[in-house]
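hi! just following up on the protien thing from before. the input was this:
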Amino acid sequence: MEKALPSIPVKRYFTIGEVAELCGVKPHVLRYWEQEFTQLRPMKRRGNRRYYQHHEVLMIRRIRDLLYDQGFTISGARNKLQELVASERDRRKSVGEGPLEGVEAIEIDQEEFEAALHEEEDAREAEAEAADGVALAVPATRAPLRAGAMSPLQQLRRELFEIRELLTLNR
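and the predicted 3d structure came back as:
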């Protein structure tokens, strides 16, 4: 019997390894699918490290389903995915919905993306060091962020991502 895929955690970005585990495919398969499916375009950071967003993880799961479970070829899955995207776009236009039922899409520039990733990496390092019982030297300029304080923009962004997660779960 086929093993069920794990649920997708609520977070901003996923590494290629995390996505591989969440979708039940190997990282090299994900890199190949990027070449074959133009809709799949993760953000890249220094060294070409890929960072996927929630909607891309969902798209990868859909691609996996088309290829592995429904038996489509790569070109057939590509065509089916384009049809699904077009029909969803048409449905939203006819109902008068925006990208997220009236919520404008969040545009993130490269600098914001880098800053958010650094914050996430810093938080992970702090958690790991705290778990090891090692004292953490925190620079004064970043102390409020590590202590859990978030700027109003960060709070708004987090709430919007949570809303998007809830909307995708209710479909």
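Confidence is low (pLDDT under 50) at residues 101-105, 134-146.
Residues 74-95 form the longest helix (22 residues).
cheers
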